[in-house]
Amino acid sequence: MEIHKDISTSMHVDLLIIGGSAAASAGAVYAARREVNVTIIAQDWGGEVASSGQIGNYPGFIETNGIELADTFRKQVEANNIPIELGVKVTQIVKNGEGDFQIKAKKDGGDVEYSAKAVLVTTGVHPRELNADGEKNLRQKGVTYCTTCDGPLYRGKTVATIGGGNSALESALMLKEICPKVYLLTINSELMGETIYITKLKQAQNVEIIYNASTKKFIGTDRLEAIEYDDAKTKKVTKIEVQGAFVHIGLVPNSAFLPKEIKKNKLGEVVVNKVGETSVSGIFSAGDVTDTPFKQIAIATGQGVSAVLRAIQYLDSLS
């Protein structure tokens, strides 16, 4: 890993957590209770949790929503007197001559630097967008990127899933159980996921699979009312009326800033073991940015705890 011998720093901590959502919150609380000098830095608070709609599958909450849950996470962090710095975009992690990690970042248009004995990366993911007209304006107003989170809100409504891989197929399979009509739009000439999923969808009476569909526009003022797509081969434009659209064309891990020594898979996810260790000793990772196969809030919090407990062992070994 790159070594920098002469770097000034604005803050030195034992454990620096990068990211401000479920994994970061859970890990930070455990670190504070073990009297570890810990700080959280993040671009914003809440991550994909805050962008979720209603949430009814997080332990301890019969029903909440993404904004409220993210706010609860923050209140618990603050109750444990853990510093949070927002508006911080990390650009690089290097090792200084003393063996500590130097974290370079941007904040308020200027350069800032942090120093830490250990680092926990919990920067999450962001959904790959279609870049279709109306997509940004109607996000969480009918356009969503998480069927597990938001699907139950569309019970009894006509909906569409956009995508052709396993995540899209799983979305359509879930929606067909609660919605009278489900469109599955894929830009490909065939579905690309598991055969058993494809078979079930083709047999479903309330699922209509539309191939070669290039989604161009989401239509609606305050709520989604329709989708416009064209046939990738014939260029024929078609509009279908729907109340919900679930975009599943992939997730993009927020991992580009990590050093090349950190092993990632072909998707850019950080490869970790069961206690959150990465390929670089002293750098840990948890939550959706990792190669865990399931992207769920409850899983992220557990991973954050495991990673911090292992990080504490690492810090103890330095003493």
Textual characterization of the structure:
By secondary structure, the protein is α/β, with parallel strands linked by helices. The protein has 2 domains: about 5-125 and about 250-319, FAD/NAD(P)-binding domain; about 130-245, 3-Layer(bba) Sandwich (FAD/NAD(P)-binding domain). The radius of gyration is 22 Å and the shape is elongated. The protein starts with a strand and ends with a helix. It has helices at about 20-35, 45-50, 65-80, 145-150, 165-175, 195-205, 295-319; strands at about 5, 10-20, 40, 55, 65, 85, 90-95, 100-105, 110-120, 125, 145, 160, 180-185, 205-210, 215-220, 225-230, 235-240, 245, 250-255, 285.
Structure characteristics:
single chain, 319 residues, alpha/beta, FAD/NAD(P)-binding domain, 2 domains, eight-stranded mixed beta sheet, five-stranded parallel beta sheet, 7 helices, elongated, disordered N terminus, Alkyl hydroperoxide reductase, FAD/NAD-bd_sf
What Rg, in angstroms, do the CA atoms define? Answer: 22 Å
Question: Low-confidence spans: pLDDT under 50, at least 5 residues?
Answer: 3-8
CATH class placement of the largest domain: Alpha Beta
Contiguous helical run count: 7
Describe the sheet with the most strands. 8 strands, mixed
**How many strand elements?**
20
CATH superfamily of the largest domain: FAD/NAD(P)-binding domain
What is the total domain count? Answer: 2
Beta-strand fraction estimate: 25-35%
For this structure, the CATH topology of the largest domain is FAD/NAD(P)-binding domain
Which structural category fits the helices and strands? alpha/beta
CATH architecture of the largest domain: 3-Layer(bba) Sandwich
Oligomer: single chain
Mean pLDDT value: 93
Pfam family, one: Pyr_redox_2
Protein name: Alkyl hydroperoxide reductase
InterPro entries: FAD/NAD-bd_sf, FAD/NAD-binding_dom, Ferredoxin-NADP_redctase_2
GO molecular function: oxidoreductase activity
